[in-house]
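Issue 218. Parser rejects a valid record. Input:
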Amino acid sequence: MTSAPLHRYRSHTCGALRKTHVGSTVRISGWVHRVRDHGGLLFIDLRDHYGITQVVADPDSAAFKLAEKVRSEWVIRVDGKVRDRPEGTVNADLPTGAIEVFAGEIEVLSEAKELPVPVFGEPEYPEDMRLTYRFLDLRRETLHAIIMKRLAITKSIRARMHDVGFNEFPTPILTASSPEGARDFLVPSRIHAGKFYALPQAPQQYKQLLMISGFDRYFQIAPCFRDEDPRADRLPGEFYQLDVEMSFVEQEDVFSTMEPVITALFEEFADGFPVTKNWPRIPYDTAIAKYGSDKPDLRNPIEMQDVTEHFRGSGFKVFAGMIEKDPAVRVWAIPAPGGGSRAFCDRMNGWAQKEGQPGLGYIMYRAEEGAAGAGPVAKNVGADRATAIHKQMGLKIGDACFFTAGNPAKFYKFAGLARDEIGRELKLVDEKRFAFAWIVDFPFYEWNEEEKKVDFSHNPFSMPQGGREALEAAEKAGRDAILGLKANQYDMVCNGYEIASGSIRNHLPETMVKAFEITGLSRADVEARFGGLYRAFQYGAPPHGGMAAGIERMVMLLTGCKTVRDVAIFPMNQQANDLLMGAPSEVGLKQLRELNIRVNPLEKK
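Output the parser choked on:
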């Protein structure tokens, strides 16, 4: 009885062979990972998507001459016999490490030129080179594993969302331009001369329309497109998000549905790191006051406090004068457990100056001075006030306390950065856990200083707390009351990153109009810009809400990567250039004429 012929390229993958295959004749194909010459005995590590198999050729093998010629990243086919590795050469780190394939025949399927970037190992290499040759970069073991982990994460998300009763709906990619907080990517229409589609910044209006259409629970792993400057936690141009919408829900319903989904997802892929149970709900104002951020890293135990009264009328004239002159001025204290040395305080002061600040005031609580403290601030405020600060902040001998002063609206971000820096420098941050929280009660509006007008703070489609009545009352009371309005809006944060943002939506047409009128838009503007959604609200809209979580951000956290570019398959660089495909690129005059477009180049300065 004759055995079945081998497949043209492989009978097994490079990750499949084990001791049970010893004695079998096999065919494997893949990339030459590396070649090692051990005194006339050639070892070829052959790699494919599934793993690595060691191939051996000696001078007695018919394949030896060709084996001498192959180089890194050539694609070859190997026919040979599986045998045990000699005693002492077993590689316990490889699933195939107990066996090797003795080559009987080698066929070169494709040669490779000298590599512009290495594949073997994990060397540091310029990012632009790696992105230009991303197809080589993706062959590296670490990056290859990250991309596969990303796929596993999105697969798990889909399964978990279906398990809790959601259905995945696709929404259009070509849509109308609308303000979502960033610039749109515009697509000219050939058929409708002079008009443009927009790529969706998010499926916001479509998912709301699905709720109005009677579909109860929507989700989508949605592509989103925003023409904004690149940053570490968002890809330039396009990114993906877990988009969610639910009907007949309040804020707590969204939390009780999505919190277990995301917690379980992180537990599945966290490599044993603990994940927060029962996420805290932190009001926006509290987050700003305690952490200097609306996306606080709760692995850092430092919490700031207001210590204004300890400086009012004190001998520290810089702060006391500011407090007397302006009632909006506050003094915030940032505790530094274990930071009570001159060297550390000087280092933090230098850091503040690099951040563009004049410095960072501090009190050191050392054994010599006790709770009376040391340093220029302690000397000027006096022992009683320094001791009161020590007590309020719950400090110990060996600690320090840093201070920022001014209008919190202008300095809170710097205070938050100082909290982060102190936590890092003193190694207070627990790197091996995922700390989640919901940030709630966001401001509904903010003041646009550039345009001297009220603008939406977050999402214009959110329901203000108190509804239309609250909007009308605030409008009568004036700007401060308007800026004091809160929204049924929330963010999901983890380890210093905003993972998701969401809200209970404004589903009432007259409330929607009033909300936009306060920002200067008329009813006609609302109808023109959001016609589809506004019309739909006239015909029975259920109360609804949802959220959108960034896929790349979650994968970045779960893989320990530093930027979202590390978890994208074909990302752009930091200048929003696709170096692999050469985008953006110029187009020919014929295409421009078909689109009724003329390019007016900017003059070089």
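Fixed in the parser; the record now loads. The first strand starts at residue 25 and ends at 38.
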